[in-house]
Specification:
heterotrimer, A alpha/beta, B alpha/beta, C mainly alpha, B: 5-stranded parallel sheet, C: Dissimilatory Siroheme-sulfite Reductase, Chain: A, domain 1, globular
Chain lengths: ~140, ~100, ~110
């Protein structure tokens, strides 16, 4: 498809305190219908969006962290997490949920969608964007 | 006079916690809520800021409901920070003369 | 327009979707379908139950493309195609089946 564009979503906010994270997720899901090349970047407080074991019963809000594991079904499988942002927050890859997709070109093997990246790599990803959306 | 300071902005993104700590006096309590709860964890880029303030006699608390919502375990909170629930939040407000919100 | 089932009244939005997810029961599903002049068969129920399980796990109603693929995986290729799903739910599998399943309209369906 020659008209495929690269969409990069920059996610920099923690979930629940503000509406950015949920808004971004909804736009990603809606945008997935257009079958474009989609990359999600999580940096700064955005890395909190992907933590596992989120339990929102106490704050009376919808726990939308479960929805991230549906992204693979939507062919959104390029998820880049800033390693330094995790480190600054005392977090590691083990603190994040596992997000996977089935690789059509590799006999539907289940693969991880998450890639730890440096700030330099994020600069490259941003540079590759035809459309850049910031949340 | 003792003051309860509530901080709800991420210390990794805003200077609310720094501003708060620059005026928080000995005997004051800083309660971290909402997007600020990540500041209560061990091994973060702001952990030494928090520990230094504790060394100067400022007490810290963090709202457990907001930690849990973000998947952050209470076991990873810096030693000496108390994890409180909403009732504990109210109790803190009652135990201090004033509440200052660092919006 | 509220929906009445067995003497109980359920709040719905202007398009007939249940206002409260937790109000749903199989009887409510039958009533929502009846309001559209439809009768639910086992084939309808397979899809409705699938959607409820999907929502429980992921907290969203899937887009049609995702639904079709997932149904094919779970219930077989003969059911995982739009022809089959549109025959069951002529107003659109995602929209209509979600309505009977008591779910909000799928994200992206305006």
């Amino acid at each position: 498809m020659s008209d495929t564009k690269t969409f990069v979503y920059m996610n920099r906010k923690a979930p629940y305190g503000t509406v950015y994270a949920l808004e971004s997720l909804e736009v990603v899901l809606i945008g997935a219908a257009f079958e474009q090349n989609v990359k999600l970047v999580f940096m700064d407080d955005g890395v909190y969006q992907l933590t596992k074991n989120q339990d929102t019963d106490g704050i009376g809000m919808k726990n939308f962290s479960k929805t991230y594991s549906a992204l693979g079904d939507y062919d959104v499988n390029q998820i880049y997490v800033c390693e330094q942002s995790l480190k600054d927050r005392g977090l590691t890859l083990d603190d994040l949920q596992e997000l996977t997709y089935e690789d059509e070109d590799d006999d539907w093997a289940e693969k991880s969608s998450i890639h730890l990246v440096s700030r330099d790599q994020i600069a490259e990803i941003v540079g590759s964007a035809d459309v850049l959306l910031n949340f | 006079m003792s003051t309860l300071h509530t901080v709800n902005k991420s210390p990794f993104e805003r200077n609310s916690l720094d501003s708060c700590l620059s005026v928080a006096a000995e005997g004051a309590t800083v309660l971290l809520i909402e997007d600020a709860v990540g500041g209560a964890l061990q091994n973060t880029a702001v952990a030494s800021t928090v520990s230094d303030a504790m060394g100067k006699g400022v007490k810290f608390a963090v709202l457990g409901e907001d930690l849990r919502a973000r998947g952050l375990s209470a076991e990873r909170v810096i030693d000496g920070i108390s994890v409180v629930d909403y009732a504990g939040f109210v109790q803190l407000a009652c135990d201090h003369d004033n509440v200052q919100n660092w919006l | 327009m509220p929906l009445e089932v067995n003497g109980k009244t359920y709040e719905t939005d202007e398009e007939g979707y249940l206002a409260n997810l937790n109000d749903w029961t199989p009887e409510v599903a039958e009533a929502l379908a009846a309001a559209d002049g439809e009768t639910l068969t086992d084939n309808h129920w397979e899809v409705i139950n699938f959607l409820r399980e999907y929502y429980e796990e992921y907290q969203i109603a899937p887009a049609v493309r995702v639904l079709t693929k997932a149904i094919g995986k779970k219930l077989g290729k003969d059911k995982g195609n739009s022809k089959y799903l549109y025959e069951l739910f002529p107003y659109g599998p995602a929209k209509q089946a979600c309505k009977y399943a008591g779910l909000p309209k799928p994200t992206g369906c305006v």
